[in-house]
Description:
This protein is mainly β. Helices cover 0% and strands 39% of the residues.
Amino acid sequence: MSESKELKxxxxxxxxxxxxxxxxxxxxxxxxxxxxTEKAITLLADMPGVxxxxxxxxxxxxxxxxxxxxxxxxxxxxxxIYVEYETGRYYRQFSLSEVIAQEKIDAKxxxxxxxxTLPKVEKATPRRIAVQAG
Length: 134
């Protein structure tokens, strides 16, 4: 798989100590798929259990940061016998190049999948420039 020069995936970096975290609990790295066309890059991030109001997509200094929080399942009657569903936070960062039109980035969350559309800057249209005699 080749990596796009317009979008650099930052290496996974686990948090080394609890002192680095501001909230207790695990931090998950969402799995992503990245697709590229001539006009845009599409990034799909798997964030099951995250609701739109608990999701942040932040763009600062050419760094795109995804954070989301998943809470405990609500409304489950009865006593817990066995639980595998983990609560915690999602965190992932990407470096953007100047080829991405940052002001036009679009984000949608549906069925636990975040879809980011990162449009590319339109290239200058080739044209003939008339020279005027002066």
